[in-house]
Amino acid sequence: MTQVVYFIEGDGIGPEIWAAARPVLDAAVKKASAGARKIEWREILAGEKALNETGEYLPQETIDTLRQAEFAIKGPLTTPVGGGFRSLNVALRQILDLYACIRPIRYYPGIVSPVRNPEKVDMIVFRENTEDVYAGIEYESGSQEAKRLISFLREELGANVDLSAGVGIKPMTEHGSKRLVRKAIQYALAQGKPSVTLVHKGNIMKFTEGAFARWGYELAAAEFGGQTTNEADEAPGSRLVIKDRIADNMFQQALMKPELYSVLATPNLNGDYLSDALAAQVGGLGIAPGMNCSDQLAFFEATHGTAPKHAGKDTANPGSILLSGAMMLEQMGLPEAAALVQNAMVKTIASKHVPRDLAAQMEGAVTVGCREFGELLLAAI
Length: 381
Ligand code: NAI
What we know:
Number of helices: 13
Largest sheet: 11 strands, mixed
Bound molecules: 1,4-dihydronicotinamide adenine dinucleotide
Order of helices and strands: EHEHHEHEEEHEHEHEEHEHEEHHEHEH
Helix content: 40-55%
Strand content: 15-25%
């Protein structure tokens, strides 16, 4: 069986990391399925390559293809200066309604972590991707818009907002919150995870973050009643425990008791902070995988940027895009192939033959180039 995956090489180091990662993914699929499964890679254009070939950063053809695709993967994209986009990534998320950003965080032995027991971290963050303060509704201090909005707040709603303030709006809907929590619960049940934690700042922002937690519990009860329970239940059995933590406490918990947490479901801003903080906690920010998805498309990506100073020098680390590819294999129903990639990563890092960014933190490491690291991973498979 052949499965189509669309890919965007990306800008900067994108082509190099992709060239190193793709053969590893192919080899894992071939080995795990004994040749029965195969990926058909189809390139689509975005970013500088698209600009050079079509005159546009994000051609309509790319959008149309992604609208009917099931799986896609991309390297990092340069944010065009004056290109009409705030960011190509944000544009893709909005156009394709990629409402969930999913980031697994685990430790790879050998990587230097700032904490004593990084191996206790095994979490996956489901971050809402379309709402919250990221909706982009913001007005500059002193602008006409800010003054009009503040006047309305003061005169119509009696809110005490200083007339000189810059203001931002934080919209969060029941629909947006519930579809994110639904994805997190579905994943947790499918993977046999013990809990889903709703992370929010509802003690202060009651009608946005607080509502997120309330809607999350409501959804769990309404749609997954028989399969879920809550923390008060002293005998949860095999049922998935739905719990919640105030965001600041969650940061403490992640450091002090990471083993108590598994799947996290968060509004947009909390999830942004938390996914990077957790990745840093295991020393793996540079190799952290991730994906964004709608109900139809799973779009995997390198979570870092284009690293322009490494571009064309064969010094970049292909780990992030490769591990995102492994996540994709899992979702394609190829968990054995995903495990082969993960294990190749564990083995190669343990051998201490690693790219420059990892070697700089590891004692006794041998620095290898991007291409050679890919070859070592391939050999490990
Ligand atoms: P960056 O992630 O490209 O670089 C941050 C630091 O990490 C740099 O020191 C870089 O050399 C290093 N680095 C990143 N990835 C690496 C890898 N695979 N191997 C070795 N070292 C690596 O972030 P920066 O510099 O803020 O952004 C550069 C460009 O990338 C900008 O145009 C930005 O808009 C874009 N960007 C795109 C993203 C995406 O497509 N998802 C995400 C973040 C930034």
